[in-house]
Specification:
Largest sheet: 3 strands, antiparallel
Distance between the termini: 29 Å
């Protein structure tokens, strides 16, 4: 499966985030404490219903908020003879946090 986009609301340090991802490589870089790991945690949380950090569910909700939301849009990719049937020509996308 390919993650097409992710939206966060009141998740950790994100008040709101809408991010479209490329079908191949996505590179996240930036200074410390900008939210890169929080974004990866949100993807993991959406896929598994739990955090990879040792925390309570309440810990992922932005401070002073009552609830958080994660919306992740996936593209299903079928594989035949080890080659994807659905392919994209989109190149890597680089996301910078500042």
């Amino acid at each position: 499966m390919i993650i097409e986009s992710i939206e966060l609301k009141n998740y950790r340090n994100y008040e709101s985030l809408k991010l479209s991802l490329g079908n191949k490589n996505n590179i996240f870089y930036g200074d410390n404490a900008q939210g890169k790991t929080n974004l990866l945690e949100a993807i993991f949380f959406a896929a598994s219903s739990k955090s990879f950090r040792f925390c309570k569910d309440r810990d992922v909700i932005r401070f002073s908020e009552e609830e958080a939301h994660i919306k992740m849009i996936l593209q299903k990719c079928f594989v035949f003879q080890d080659k994807p049937l659905v392919q994209s020509k989109q190149e890597s996308i680089i996301h910078h946090w500042n």
